[in-house]
Amino acid sequence: MSTFNCVLLNLLLVFSSLGHARTGVAIDPDKAQAYTPAPENLKARERFQDNKFGIFLHWGLYSQLGGVGSPYGAEWIMEDLRISGPKYKRLAEFFNPTGFDSEQWVKAFKDAGAKYIVITSKHHDGFAMYDSKVSNFDIVDSTPYKKDPIKELANSAHKHGLQLFFYYSQLDWHHPDYYPWGRTGHYTKREKSGDWEKYLQFQDAQLKELLTQYGPIGGIWFDGWWDQEDSHNWDNWQLQRTYKMIHELQPATLIVNNHHRFTVPGEDYQGFEQQLPTNQERLGKLPLEMAQTMNGSWGFSLTDDNYKTTKELVQTLVSAAGRNANYLLNTGPMPNGKIQPENLKTFAEIGQWLKVFGKSIYGTRGGPISPQNWGVSTHNNESIFIHILNWQADTLSIELATPIKSAINLKSSKPVNFKQLEGVITLENLKFENEEYVQVIELTLKPND
Ligand code: JFZ
C-alpha cells in the first residue's frame, strides 16, 4: 500500500472510529489507488453474483478438539485455551481424517444448491490443510493421513461444476517470523523475535502454491488482517504486493478480505461476517457476500447445538439476495472428515427449497424495491421477484412504477390478482399456499416496445 493511500485509510479509520464516517470525508479507497480489474475478473464478479450461494468450510487440526471449552469457536481453541505451539503441534500426530470423501462432500453441497465452496487452506493456527512445500506444518508432511484433501476436493468440485475458493489466514500463530505479534498469539511460546518480511515471503509462497496447483481458483478469502490493527501497522501487510501477485497468477480469482473495513484497492468483493450488509457507511460498489455459521462456531463444535432453523437460514439467504449479496453458509467438518449429519439434513432442506424457488435467487440482483418490513425483492431481465418474509395480511401494496404484465405465485404457478396504479402495485388475495419459509411472487415485466 502506498503511503498516500495509507494516510487516506488512516483518516478513514479515524473518522469511522469517531462515528463520523457518514458525515466525514467522502474517501473512497476503491478509487484512491489505481486498480483496474482484468476483463476476466469483471466476468468472474458477474458469475460470482449469479451464483449467490456458497458453502464455507472450517476444517483443521482444531476440529479434533470439538471446540470444548473454547468460548469464541472451535478454530480459536489454541488461543482461547492458551495451548503452546509444541503441544498444539501434537494434534497433527493424531489427525487422520480417513472418513473424508470429496465426492460425498461435493454431492452434499450441490444438493444444497450451492455453487461454490470456500475452504480453510490455513487458519490462524498456521496449519496448512494442503501439501505445502514451504512448510512441514501441513497435512501431508506431519499427519498419519499423509494425503492432500484439498487436491481431492479441487478435483471433485471442478468435476461437478462447483468453484473452489480458499480461505487464507494472514495472521499466523505458528510461523516463527510472524513478528511483531499482533493482538493474539501471545501464549504460543515462540521466540519474541522474527523477520516480518520473511513471513510475508512465506505467505506469498503459500498463496502461489494454492494458485498454481489446484486449477482455477474462484477467490482468496483473506482473514486475520485485523491482528495487527492495534499497533496501527496496516501497511505491514503489503496488501498491494500480494494482491498483484494473485491477480497476475489468476486474473479471474476474486479477492476478499475479512478486515471489517471499507474495501481496499485490489479487492474484488466485500465480505460481511454474521450480518447482512446493512451498514450503509461501509457499503461500497463491489459485489457483496455475507458469511454465517449454522450454530455459533465456524469450526466443528461438539457442544454447540444452537442451530438456526432451516427457515431462518433460507430467510437469511433471501434477505441477503434482496440486498444484492451472496450467502456463504458455514459448516465445520468433523475430525474424521465427515460433515455433521445435522448439517447434511439442513443442506438437503435448503436444496429442496432452492429447487422450487431458485429462479428467484440464482442469476438475480437485489431490488428494485429496497428491503421493507414485509421482505425483499430480486430481479433479472424478465422478472421482479417479491419475497414475502413477514406479512400476514392478504393484500400488499408496493411502490413500483415498472409496468407489470403478470403475477404468479412461484410455488403453485397460480396467478396472483394485482392492480397497478400511479406507481403502486397492489397484490391481492395473497394466500400462503403451504410455503414454509418465504412466499415468492414473480412479476413478469412488460416487454419494452
Ligand atoms: C474470523 C476468524 O477469526 C474466525 O475464526 C472465522 O474464520 C471467521 C470467518 O473470521 O473472525 C473474525 C474476524 C474479524 C472480526 C471478528 C471475527 N472482527 O474484526 O471483529
Automatic annotation (TrEMBL):
It comes from the Bacteria. InterPro entries: FUC_metazoa-typ (IPR016286), GH (IPR017853), Glyco_hydro_29 (IPR000933), Glyco_hydro_29_N (IPR057739). Keywords: Glycosidase, Hydrolase, Signal. SUPFAM superfamilies: (Trans)glycosidases (SSF51445). Residues 31-359 form the Glycoside hydrolase family 29 N-terminal domain. Its EC number is 3.2.1.51. Residues 1-21 form the signal peptide. Belongs to the glycosyl hydrolase 29 family. Alpha-L-fucosidase is responsible for hydrolyzing the alpha-1,6-linked fucose joined to the reducing-end N-acetylglucosamine of the carbohydrate moieties of glycoproteins. This is alpha-L-fucosidase. It comes from Pseudoalteromonas gelatinilytica. The lineage of its organism: Bacteria, Pseudomonadati, Pseudomonadota, Gammaproteobacteria, Alteromonadales.
